[in-house]
Design goal:
By secondary structure, the protein is mainly alpha-helical. The chain folds into two domains: 1-35; 37-92, no CATH class. The protein has four helices and no strands. The chain has helices at 2-29, 40-54, 56-65, 71-85. The longest helix has 28 residues, at 2-29. The radius of gyration is 19 Å and the shape is flat.
Length: 92
Amino acid sequence: MGGLFLAGVVPGLLMAGALMGFVYCRAILRNESALHRFSLIEVFRQARYAALALLMPFIILGGIFAGVMTPTESAAVAVLYAVLAEPSSSAG
């Protein structure tokens, strides 16, 4: 079991490094190197919009660990939740 986990560490680190390099090069090419100040108030302001999406892992894992749903049923409930929780794009 440990060998299988270890087999994914090197590819995962290579993928993370490649993605970091890509983002860095893209920011340089688009001249987006200006730093933005971190604001905790802005984090909380934006978290309002992500609150419904952040509940999904709790619904999935909570249902499985509580014994209420199987993983397949939990996936179906997650899809239904995502459809119902999605803000309507035609309301604008």
